[in-house]
Structures are given as C-alpha cells and as structure tokens.
Amino acid sequence: MSSEKINDNKIMSVSETVALIEKGKTLVIFGEESQISSLPIGNWIAGTSPYFYIKNENGRMDKTSLMVSDFSDYVIASKSETYTADNLAKITENNYENGFTFLIIPALKPIHLKFALESPEYKNLFDNPLIGVIAGVDLTEFAAGRVSKIINGKDKKVLENEAVALHCQLPNHQVARMEIINAFEPSKKHIIEVFEDTFTITDCLIDGKKTNLYDFMMANNMDLVHPLVCDYSGATINVSFQRLDEASKSVIFYAPLFKGKQYSQAKKLDNYADIFNTKIKTKATLEPSLIYNCNCILNYLYADLEHNQIGFTGAAAFGEIGYNLLNQTFTYLSIDE
Amino acid sequence: MKIPPKNRPEWLQIVNQEIDYKFQNFVLQMKCAEFSKKIKNGSISQTQAVDEFYSLCEKYILAVNVDLQKIFKTY
C-alpha cells in the first residue's frame, strides 16, 4: 500500500492543537502535563508521555510539543469517560455497537495493576477493539517519584489514579481492527510456569521443577532486555522485566504472568531496529488504512530510537493496551471497509 | 464475501484447538486462547464458543477471509 494511507500521529505545537480542539476534533493527545493542561476543554483525552518516535527522523524526549492523534475523519460519534479502579471493568458496557475504545491508564498505580490482572475476564472484551496506552513521564523524574497523569478534555481534571477512555463509533460499513507487531519470538529454551497470577515471582516451575527464578536468572546470565514471552494461539505476548530484587530473591515484572500459561525468554535480537523494520514492512505498511500506532518505552530505549527510526510517528508508552496489558509491543489500529 | 456456514465441523475444531492453525488476526488469536482456557474450565460451552467466534469472523471478514479459505478450503 502507499504510505499516504497511513494516518500517522502528528507532533504539534500547543497552539496547533488548540486550533484542532476549537474545531471540535476528536483527539488523543500525549505530552507534558503542563502543555496538556494549557489546552481548552474539548473532545479529547490525554496522557502524559514526553518520548516521541518520529518517521524519517530520530526520536526525542520533547517537553514542549504534543503528539496528537486525530480520529475525526473516521468516527461518527464519540464520548469520553473517566473510570476508577473499581468500575474500569464496566468499560465495555459503554462501547458503541460498532467502533473502538481508546484507553489511557497511569503507570504503576493500582488501576494499572488491577487492569492487567482482570482485563482478560472483562465481559464482551473482544466485541470492539480496546486499544490504548499506559501513560508515562520523563524516566529520570519517574525514578525520583514523579507520577504519570491522565486528563479528560471534557472537564480537564488532571488525575493520577483513574483511567480515561474515548469511546468511538464508526459507520456500519467500517470496522476497526487492532493488531500487534512483536519483534520478539520465544526461545522455548526453558519453560517457566507460575503457581498463581502474579507480577512478582520468587519460586516457579522451570522445566517442571520448582526453582527460584532470581537464582536461575543469575546462574544463567539472563538479561532484562529480552522479555518473557507466551504464545496466545499465535499471538506472542511479552511480559517485560522490571527489576531483580536481591533482598527478597524475587523478580518483578511490568505485567502479570498467568497461572496455566507457559513462558520462555525471548530469543536474543542482534538488531532490534532492523528486525522491527522488516516486520513493519511485511505487516503494518500493507494495511489498507492504519489510523493509530504506539510503541513501548522499553523498545524506544533498547532499540535506541533516539538514534533510529521505525517508519512511524507516535508517543512511546509505559505499556500498551491491546484488550489486555501488553509490554514491549508495537500496536496499531486499522479500519476495514 | 461470505464465511462458511456455522454447521461446518471445522468451527468446533477451531474453538477446541483441534485444528493446528494460527490465525493472522490478533483478536482471533486472543479469542482462541480464551476459548482454550474457558472450555477447559467449563465456563463456556462449545456451542457458545462457536457462536462467539463465528460472530467475530463475520465482523472481521475482510481480515480473516484468507485464514478461513485455508481452513475450510471450499464453502
């Protein structure tokens, strides 16, 4: 397909974004809290994230611009809703009969962890695409205690413990479809299974034998760059390492591992950017109408996207949402008609 | 464009993962993984699973047409 059919996210100034809002456009916005807060009330939702990857340019951390996705040309109706950790499971009840929902959740807050654990059981989860991101902030500031935020443009409340969703309706002759591109593949070298759904592992089964994962990783020189992966009937789902905790001899992840699933560490990648670009060329660029894409902050860092480009523009997130919580995954939304 | 009739036995084989075929479409991959778990723990019947999967295939007919042709051959 021609690249003209790819509707990339766009880097915009605050004033350019204000102009779109004043025209009544339906927007999803990422950037610094101070910039987002200066926008007028309107039909938009936003999350903090200053890391941008850019088509035909090196990526950058940008605290003055905004990354804007404009869905106005596609949707015939939309509504934004704010959810708490207690009612997020009802998000699918607000779906239009035909459309998609874009969800933004603040990073590493209880609502993030609850969504990760419970979303596989949400009622009618797969009726419409549920796509979105985990908001983030400058990583240095995050380490110092700064938290990510979400904002609903209809009241401009800046929140750090709630999630915000933009429910979008499409005309009946169109259908939204979300897909993922994962540079990683399972090594199946060692099979890891957990005893319960969890973000933190001490003991687990490795190749059927009860083993301390921390000790196993140290003994086998396993790195934190290559995530654990699990096969979901053909979809490779990553679970990224957050850190090793020496004191408790445990391993902490950015997403939960689920009981009953089999995980293995991903095969080592020689060059993420090359492998990713190859996968992009054989999948995303062939899409008839791609209207949104997102990549992970870990891919941004490990693939050095400040000095590379992947043929798309977007904001790097602290996690991706593709019905469930995803890690280290490129996601996109396409429209079929 | 149409999809195979719901009474074709392949639908049951798909939701029971008796056909070794990986769908290209993400939502169908996730749905197959969900069925594998739910049918095993008895929280969904095979008939319900076929109904749900059939509906998704109708919705995403453009994206799954190639997959369905490979599985069902003729219909």
Structure, explained:
The complex is a heterodimer of chains A (337) and B (75). The mean pLDDT of chain A is 94. The two termini of chain A are 15 Å apart. With 337 residues, chain A is α+β, with helices and mostly antiparallel strands. Chain A has helices at 14-22, 33-37, 110-118, 139-143, 213-219, 272-282, 297-302; strands at 10-12, 27-31, 44-48, 51-53, 60-61, 66-70, 77-83, 99-106, 130-135, 150-152, 158-159, 163-169, 175-181, 192-193, 198-201, 203-206, 209-212, 228-232, 235-239, 241-245, 250-257, 263-265, 290-296, 314-317, 320-322, 324-326, 330-336. In chain A, strands 1-6-2-3-10-11 form a six-stranded mixed beta sheet. Chain A has a six-stranded mixed beta sheet with strand order 5-4-24-23-27-13. Chain A has a six-stranded mixed beta sheet with strand order 7-12-8-9-25-26, with helices on one face. Chain A is 15% helix and 38% strand. Chain A is built from seven helices and 27 strands. In chain A, β18 and β19 (235-239) form a beta hairpin. The radius of gyration of chain B is 11 Å and the shape is globular. In chain B, α1 (9-15) packs across α3. The relative contact order of chain B is 0.25. With 75 residues, chain B is mostly helical. The chains are: A alpha+beta (337), B mainly alpha (75). Chain A binds chain B through residues 120, 126, 129, 175, 177-180, 232-235, 260, 322-324, 336-337, and chain B through 17, 22-27, 29-34, 36-37, 52, 56, 59-60, 62-63.
